[in-house]
Amino acid sequence: MCARVPALSGEMQMKTIGADPVNKRIATKPVHVIGGGLAGSEAAWQLAEAGVPVVLHEMRPVTPTPAHRTDRLAELVCSNSFRSDDAEHNAVGVLHAEMRLLGSLVMRAADAARVPAGSALAVDRDIFAETVTTAIAEHPLVTVKREEITALPPPEWGDVIVATGPLTGSALAEDIRRVTGEDQLAFFDAIAPIVYKESIDFSVAWFQSRYDKGEGADYINCPLTKDQYEAFIDALLAAEKLAFREWETDTPYFEGCMPIEVMAARGRDTLRFGPMKPVGLTDPRTGKRPYAVVQLRQDNKLGTLYNMVGFQTKLRHGEQLRVFRMIPGLENAQFARLGGLHRNTFIRSPRLLDDRLRLKSRPHIRFAGQITGVEGYVESAAIGLLAGLFVAAERHGLDLPAPPRESAHGALLAHITADADPETFQPMNINFGLFPPIAEDGPRLRGRERKQAMAARALGAMADWAQTLARLKDQQPAPTA
Predict the structure, then answer these.
(1) What residue ranges define each of the domains in the chain, with the CATH number in brackets?
(2) Closest by alpha carbon to 201, among 228, 223, 218?
(3) What's the rounded Cα separation, in Å, for the pair 466 and 98?
(4) d(Cα 398, Cα 479) in Å, to the nearest integer?
(5) H or E element: which one contains 359?
(6) What pLDDT, in 10s, does the model give residues 451-470?
(7) Pick from 98, 92, 165, 99: which is nearest to 122 by CA?
(8) What is the Cα 212 distance to its own chain's centre?
(9) Which residues pair with 219 in a beta bridge?
């Protein structure tokens, strides 16, 4: 069951800190947000809703990136899934609920663009990006400038939020390296292929969710026998990969988005116990569990496009067509998008940032989103949300405490700014391992009961924090006219 927590209304929402954002705007220089991805869009929204004027700098389409295809804000370039929406037993579902509680634009757009995906929150990527873009463009306190920022701005700019994400421009990345003294800010992230549904052979493939979760038939499943699986692995390992550029050769992969051919190279059964695991599925033709399965998840609201779950890859396009069409049911597959590879960028946040996301050496600059070392759409947007709230509170003369560590936002923030070892810091998804342990007087909680207790505690702590925001709003000085 997916628990939903409605957004707080009226006095409880953080956006009411600035009262009416149009009539009682803060008479001061704007906050500059660099980057129009999920984190930057969320930060700009939170600021504007709090009555603080914003200039949002987005380099597309003036300067394109290797992965983006449009000039929309918050374009999704990898999966279309925001992962689990279960706020009772899953950490990312708790983060979803907390963001809804705080009036997140990203979650509002995701809910509007939702497509079937079992207990997960998956979206039509075009509707999602268009919803965010329209909301930002129509907000009276946001100015969108299509230009590339090539260096960290000076103090004269005032407050700045850098949310340039995994595809930070090379000039800006170099300046960040220079200012922070870091020698490496990058790793690789890979993109999964998207298939036209009409080209899938449903005499072989069938609809079913693992263990019939969600609606019970949210995924398309393509089964493989042992011989078919072994032949697929042989072809995958032998296929020609994209060559690395010289400056990319020492860049590591993020474990959560490992190319499928790299996973296969770790052992012949790695995929069968990973993205191709057959557990919880029954082939209707045989009444038995297959040896291995490739799952496809709906990628757009119309249900015409499906992405290959876990099949991010760096194979050459011609090799992708040859190898992936070996999968039963995909022999005649037509691809709306083939897989690809792009470089990601992040800073060593535990060393460089304080607990309000400020760069210690230049406190007028905050960082937000994936560049801080969080991984995932929702995590990136959540850090953007916090960065926007922190700046908005300061502009109103308020002392806004960090969210409680028991909450998903607080756990994530604490990890990237304090808890992680700076020397071994790597990008991190939200997970219950980042939350403080549950204090137990009686029998030790395990499994789902433990997760349920941590989730309930987190949402209670976030509800209390939202009330603190409302009290701070009542104590704020009146914005100048």
Answers:
(1) 10-185+346-475 (3.50.50.60), 190-343 (2.40.30.260)
(2) 223
(3) 10
(4) 12
(5) strand 358-359
(6) 999 999 999 999 999 988 77
(7) 92
(8) 26
(9) 297
